[in-house]
Structures are given as C-alpha cells and as structure tokens.
Design brief:
Shape: rod-shaped
Number of strands: 10
Largest sheet: 6 strands, antiparallel, barrel
Number of helices: 9
Number of domains: 2
Structural class: alpha/beta
Strand order of the largest sheet: 1-2-5-4-3-6
Strand content: 5-15%
Helix content: 55-70%
Length: 457
C-alpha cells in the first residue's frame, strides 16, 4: 500500500526575514554602544583637562564645596558666603568674622584660586554642554532605536508566531497523515476481512446451489419417470378386468373429521390396516393422475358388514364423498380367488428416496396380509409382476471394501440379478402378465408412506 507523504511546504521566508531583522537590530545595538563609549571617553578627557588646570589644593577646596552640597560653581558659592557675612556684620555690628575671612583669603592668596574657579567654570560649562549634547544625542538614538525596535519586535513576534503556527500546522499535518495511514490500514484490513467473509459466504451459497441443483435434477428424473408412466397406454377392460372392478364404496362420511365408513366387513375378508384407493363413481376405477383417483383410505376397525376407515391422502382439488368407489388390486372378496404376485427388486416405502431389500420384504408381507399370494417363480399362472429398482446397492457397498475374489463374486451376483430382472420382464411379456413398477402398484392399492404396514389380524 502506498504511504501518504505530506506535501512539501513553501521555502521558510518567515525564518529568513526573522534572521535578517535580528542581524539589523544587533548591528544598531553595537553602533549605539560605540557612540556611548565615545561620549564617556570625551567626558573622561574633560575631567583630566580640569585636573591638569586646578592644583591639588584647589581640588581639595572644590571637593569641600561640592561635599557641602553646592549645586553651582565654586565662585558663586564664595560670593554667597561673602554676602552672608556682610549681612551678618550689618546685623550684629561685629566685624570679626568678616575680617577673619578676609584675612584667611589674603593669607591663602585667593586671586589665583578665583581665576582657577573661573577657568574651571568655563571648562565645566563646555563639558556640560557636550555632555548634554551627547545625552540628547543618546536619548535621540535610544528613541530612534525604540522607534525602530517596536515595529521590529512586532515583526519578530509576528514571525515567531507564524513560525510557531506553521510548525504546529506541520505537526498537525504529520499527525493527520499518520492517523490517515492508520485509518487506511484499518480500512484495508476490514475490507480484506469482509472480502474473505464474502468469499466464504459465496462458497457456501455455491455449495447450497449445487445441492439444490442436484435435488432438482433428482426431482426432474422422478418427474420424467412419472410422465413416462402417464404416457403409457391405458389398460383395456377386456385385458385386465380386475383392475377396473371396484371392491366397495363409501357409505357415509363424518363432517369435520377424516373418519368415514365403507360397506365391507369381516364377511368380505376385510382386514385392519388395509388401504384402498378412492375413485369418482362417474370416472370409475383407474381414473385420476396415474390411477391415483381422488385419494386413499386405511381401514381402522372392521365390523360385520361395514367398517370404520380414515383418510390418509387426498389429491389436490378433490374431496372424498359418500358413494365414492374404493379398490385395491391385492384384495378380493371371493375366498376362492387369490391373486398371485411375483415381486422383484428393491422398494422405497418410507419415501426417503432410497430403495432397500428390507422394504421389499415389507411389500411382500403386506401382499400376503391382504390376501394375496407371493410366488417365487414367474409363469403363466402369475397374475402380476411387481418390479422395484434392480437390487444393486448392496453389491456395490460390499465390493468397495472386499478383496479381489470377493469383488469378483459380488460382481457376478450383481450381473445374475440384472439378468433375472430382464428375464422377468421378457417372461411377463410372453405370458401377457401385467407389469407394475412401484409407483403404479402403490397407486392401485392406495398406499402412502403414512400407512401402517405388516400388521395382521
């Protein structure tokens, strides 16, 4: 998967501008510092020039006046002292302090001192002017520097904020890209899981579709076989009159119940659990879809002349009513007439789609219980040939796990059973014996897989 990289940002103009302004401000600070150093050097030189003009005694005297707190020149302080003395003399009338002062001045030869004071005042005034000018110049420079520094500092702060904002934006973009990458990976993983689940579900659907297709193919085969049975030409009355004769009829039904009564009893050789197909009296025995008539009934309780039965099956759109006919190809009311059946192959009585030899044995017991005779050999005395599927399932199952000799024996047995199956069909055709497969036989006896089989009186 391609990694999403953050887009390259624009050149760091803000950073370059910040560095440039920083260098300019640094240069100005150095320049102003040099100017202040030069002013301080000039002041030092003026002080040294003053010291060279004034002697040590004068300097001591000046220091004395300065220490006394005089804010003007030394000469002005002396004049003020002299005026004070004069005022004192005029008030007190004593001349002693003034004379003492004059004497001290004379003794000290104050004239050079006064001249020195004058010279020092002149130099000090000039130096004061220079210092004031330098101070004003420095203040102007400071103001100019402050004027320049204010917008510069504002610009610097703005650039710092812009840099911080861009740094935060860059970090946010990196975090977003990381989060987007994680989200993309998570989405991709989820998509892969969904695809795997979909593939699994599709495989399941395909398997179910294959099973449904197989079931449909089996159903189609069954329907095709039933259609072939329907296309068989009907049996003529003169050829098989027993198939077109009714054995009895329904005498009454019970409203809201599946119970009804038939006109057969013990005197008619009727037995419990026998089944009959029900036919419309207007259409006769053998009518309906594949001779299934309107439905089927099973005898529950046998009376002397009539018996109680229950409905086991009703064809779609049909209703079993009184006066409907009932028939069973095995049953015969005449004790002197017994129908003979030759049964071959395997049968499916429970409707699970699997034909077995054990279910063939149930068919045999059912025929015998209902008054029919099952023969072991087909000949001209046989009344019906009932064919199931060829008995090949057991042979195949055994041959899968047996030795080569056993397999050969089972294959030979299987071949002999198929030969017997074909031979039975040929013999039945030669003797004009009616042949019924399992479906048609069940239709003519009214049997369905909910019927009780094999019970006797």
């Amino acid at each position: 998967m391609a990694v999403v990289r953050p887009a390259r940002s624009a050149p760091p103009i803000a950073l370059i501008t910040f560095v440039f302004l920083f260098l300019v401000s640094t240069g100005l600070a150095i320049y102003f510092g040099l100017q202040m150093a030069s002013a301080q050097e000039d002041a030092l030189k003026a002080t040294q020039a003053r010291d060279s003009v004034v002697g040590s005694s004068e300097q001591a005297l000046i220091s004395k006046y300065v220490a006394a707190g005089a804010k003007q020149s030394a000469l002005s302080s002396a004049d003020k002292q002299l005026e004070a003395l004069k005022a004192q003399v005029s008030v007190t009338g004593s001349s002693t302090p003034a004379l003492e002062l004059v004497a001290s001045l004379k003794a000290a030869n104050a004239k050079p001192l006064l001249e020195a004071y004058k010279t020092l005042s002149t130099v000090s005034a000039e130096q004061s002017k220079q210092i004031a000018a330098l101070t004003a110049q420095m203040a102007a420079m400071k103001a100019q520097m402050a004027e320049i520094s204010a917008p510069l500092q504002t610009t610097i702060n703005s650039l710092k904020q812009e840099l911080a904002d861009k740094t935060a934006a860059s970090l946010a973009l990196q975090n977003k890209n990381s989060a987007d990458d994680a989200a993309h990976r998570s989405a991709l993983d989820q998509l892969l899981q969904e695809n795997e689940k979909k593939i699994s579900d599709d495989n399941k659907v395909i398997r179910e579709a294959a099973n449904q297709r197989q079931a449909l193919e089996d159903r189609l085969e069954k329907v095709t076989k039933e259609l072939a049975d329907l296309k068989q030409p009907p049996i003529k009355n003169q050829e098989l009159p027993i198939l077109w004769e009714a054995d009895g009829s329904i005498i009454r039904t019970t409203i809201g119940s599946d119970e009804l009564y038939v006109n057969l009893g013990r005197k008619d050789r009727l037995r419990p659990n026998m089944t009959f197909t029900v036919y419309d009296p207007k259409l006769g025995v053998g009518s309906g879809n594949n001779a299934r008539g309107k439905g089927a009934i099973e005898i529950m309780t046998v009376g002397e002349t009539e018996s109680l039965a229950r409905v086991t099956h009703t064809e779609p759109g049909e209703t079993i009513l009184a006066k409907d006919l009932i028939a069973n190809v095995v049953y015969n009311r005449d004790a002197h007439k017994v129908y003979k059946f030759y049964v071959f192959g395997d049968f499916d009585l429970d409707g699970d789609g699997i034909s077995t030899p054990s279910e063939r044995d149930k068919v045999i017991r059912m025929i015998q219980a209902w008054g029919g005779e099952v023969v072991t050999k087909i000949d001209s005395q046989t009344d019906f040939l009932i064919l199931g599927t060829p008995p090949s399932g057991a042979s195949n199952a055994l041959s899968a796990n047996g030795t080569s000799d056993q397999t050969a024996d089972l294959d030979a047995q299987k071949k002999a059973q198929k030969d017997e199956y074909v031979k039975a069909l040929i013999t039945a055709k030669d003797f004009a014996i009616p042949v019924m497969d399992a479906n048609r036989f069940f239709a003519y006896i009214g049997y369905y897989n909910n019927t009780i089989v094999g019970k006797k009186d």
